[in-house]
Amino acid sequence: MAALEDNRELVARTLAGDTSAFGELVTRYREGVSRLCYHYLASPEEAQDATQETFVNAYLRLPQLRDADRFAPWLRRIAANLCTELLRRRSRKEVSLGDADTEKAPQASLARDADLGRLTARTVVQEAFGRLPEKSRLTAKLFYIAGYSRQEIADFLQIPEGTVRSRLHHAKQQLRKEMIRMMSVDRGEAPSEERLKEIPQTLPVLALRDQVFFPFMKMALCVGRQGSVKALEEALGARGHILCVAQRNSEIDNPRKEDLYRVGTVTQCLRHRSAPGPPEGMVWGIFEGLARARIMRFAQAEPYCRARVSIVREVAEATTLEAEALIRNVVVQFERFLKVSPELAKCGTLSREKRDASQGEAFEVLPREALEAHLVQVARKMESPGLLADDVTSKLERTQIARQQQILETADPGARLRLAAELLAREVEILETEACGSADE
After folding, report:
1. Over the stretch 349-407, which tens digit does the pLDDT of each residue have?
2. CB 363 within 8 Å of CB 348
3. Within a 10 A sphere around the Cβ of 43, how many other Cβ atoms?
4. Which one in 160, 163, 184, 304 has a CA-CA gap of 20 to 30 Å to 214?
5. Cα 163 from chain centroid?
6. Could you tell me the end-to-end alpha-carbon distance of the chain, in angstroms, rounded to an integer?
7. pLDDT by residue (tens digit) across 195-233?
8. What is the rounded distance in angstroms from the CA atom of residue 371 to the CA atom of residue 180?
9. Other beta carbons less than 10 A from residue 230's beta carbon
10. pTM of this prediction exceeds 0.90
11. What is d(CA 361, CA 371) in angstroms, rounded to the nearest whole number?
12. What pLDDT is stored for residue 244 in this prediction?
């Protein structure tokens, strides 16, 4: 009760012309407003600016406040509305290249220095939140990320607690669908001859850390190193074609041409936008693998590599009993791998922030079993030995890059699947041995 009386007194003093009283209100609520703005904007700098603007707006609108006891939820609503408007403005500036058959895309200015790699689970969660309807997104963020209770959210949004529960239920269901869609590697159709003919002979090169990008894969990547950004800018200035090549040594921050493998995958950036921080400066994009390509020679080394490439055509596949048996065996091994993979366990879990000692819990937005079933179903639908080999190998994140690269460089589909089967069997054996060891301790 004392806090409410204090707020009422401070509001009255401010309205009477005592600016120091409003300074006390700012001190009291700055941290909470800043945190709310950050959860909306995912940028420390933008959150700081939004926090300042929130208090400026609150000061100017203070005469409109009917109930001084409601100052705190009134202030949070101002912050929420401001952040929502900032996000709308940001979305209008985002560049989308649309579908793969998009005509020449506009050049875009991208972010600065960062790493390149598979979209992190944290970023996937934030992306999934971003796809929720506005009301559900705010409710879910306040509960799952900011750590507010259902009753606090109901008071803040001025809605019944039952409505909060309903929104959270529907948000959780949609988050699961979005995370399954984004966290599984999507396989498209083999590109047509027309699309392959559109690929320039000389391409900018995007160096990948600890990762091999396979053809016919659609995957989200985060990019930000200066050289990588400039290479992507060139690609976006045309049709979005860029050669993704793995680094031989992931510890090298600014790889030279001798640090790159000579076989990579020609990809097309379908769309991109700034990735939520921290760290700041990340850009994420959806890339589609079109074809294997061999670097014939480098046409440029600074400030990023450009290379003249030769497309590696897929060898025609013959359906044999041996191939069918190998496909079934690989799918069975892949299912065993998913059950013991430690990386899969991290994919769908998000921990709620502990706002005090009584709160904090693990939020399983995407059950492991659901993701396992989805990935196995995708693998079972693959009738191509080469496609299955690429898909399975892309999931073996602990496998040495050199071994994954060997599969990328193998044009024969049958030989590729045999190599993938060996890698998969070895990985399953190691993981099951580790699991048994942990159980014995």
Report:
1. 544 444 443 344 445 555 667 677 777 887 888 878 888 898 888 888 667 888 999 99
2. no
3. 19
4. 304
5. 29
6. 53
7. 888 899 999 999 998 889 999 888 777 777 878 888 888
8. 6
9. 15
10. no
11. 21
12. 95
Tell me: the pLDDT tens digits for 7-59? 889 999 999 988 888 989 998 888 888 888 877 787 777 888 889 889 988 98
* Helix H or strand E encompassing 343: helix 342-347
Q: Please, what are the domains in the chain?
A: 1-93 (1.10.1740.10), 186-312 (2.30.130.40), 321-440 (1.20.58.1480)
In angstroms and rounded to an integer, the radius of gyration of the C-alpha atoms of the chain is 26
Tokens of 28: 């009291």
In one letter, which amino acid is 14?
A: T
In Å, how far from its chain's centre is CA 135?
22
* Dist. CA 127–CA 135, nearest whole Å: 16
132-162 b/e (C-beta count within 10 Å ≥ 16 → b): beeebbbbbbbbbbbbbebebbbbbbeeeee
283-300 vs 306-312, strand pairing mode: antiparallel
